[in-house]
Amino acid sequence: MSRIGKKPINIPVDVEIKIDKDSISVKGKLGELSQKFDNTSIKLSMESSRLIVIPVSSSNENRAKYGLYRSLINNMVIGVSSGFSKVLKIVGVGYRASKKGNNLEVLAGYSNPVIVSPLEGIFLDVPDNTTIVVTGIDKQVVGEMAAKIRSIREPEPYKGKGIKYEDEIIRRKVGKAAITSGT
């Protein structure tokens, strides 16, 4: 059995959960998310302020889905109650970002600025011109948007210039050494 799947999901007071036959809806102060699930492999049961995921059988396929659905539902609960965010840092001379309405304008060494429009349910913030904050209630969409922004100019290994996640460590390479003349 999955160790993650065995853990019950604690439901905060301000979160409302509605379980249908093959879907679950989670509503909180930040919004509402819904997820379909395979009702032939798992069952959901509410006990006071905890949600428990129960596998129907112990086949390999069901054991894989057991932990997956527990994590997806837990991420939904966290998302609607407190939300998710990713911070990106821009490193490099002349590289910067600014907000133009809802869109993000990134100057990353190209001849023209790159305009990025946010995905649905995503908010982009630029506290200073070298920091971008991506926030939203859906963890998957927040990660997708952050990866899309990072792909504009991925960090290079020699000087570390580019757009990187705040906690990302770039493995640096040593440049070419001066060629010494041999005798």
Question: Which tags fit this structure?
Answer:
alpha+beta, Outer Surface Protein A, domain 3, 2 domains, 21% helix, 34% strand
Description:
- The protein is of the alpha+beta class and 183 residues long.
- It has 2 domains: 3-81, Outer Surface Protein A, domain 3, CATH 3.90.930; 84-165, Ribosomal protein L6 (Outer Surface Protein A, domain 3), CATH 3.90.930.12.
- Helices cover 21% and strands 34% of the residues.
- It is built from 3 helices and 13 strands.
- It has helices at residues 3-6, 60-81, 139-150, and strands at residues 9-10, 16-19, 23-27, 32-36, 42-47, 50-55, 84-91, 96-100, 103-107, 114-116, 122-125, 131-136, 162-165.
- A 4-stranded antiparallel sheet has the order 11-12-7-13, with helices on one face.
- Strand 3 (23-27) and strand 4 (32-36) form a beta hairpin.
- It starts with a helix and ends in an 18-residue tail after the last strand.
- The model has no long low-confidence stretch (mean pLDDT 89).
Main sheet characteristics: 4 strands, antiparallel
Strand order of the largest sheet: 11-12-7-13
Distance, first to last CA: 68 Å
Range of helix content: 10-25%
Number of domains: 2
Secondary structure class reads: alpha+beta
CATH class of the largest domain: Alpha Beta
Question: Under CATH, the topology of the largest domain is which?
Answer: Outer Surface Protein A, domain 3
What's the β-strand tally? 13
The number of helical elements comes to: 3
Order of helices and strands: HEEEEEEHEEEEEEHE
The gross shape turns out to be elongated
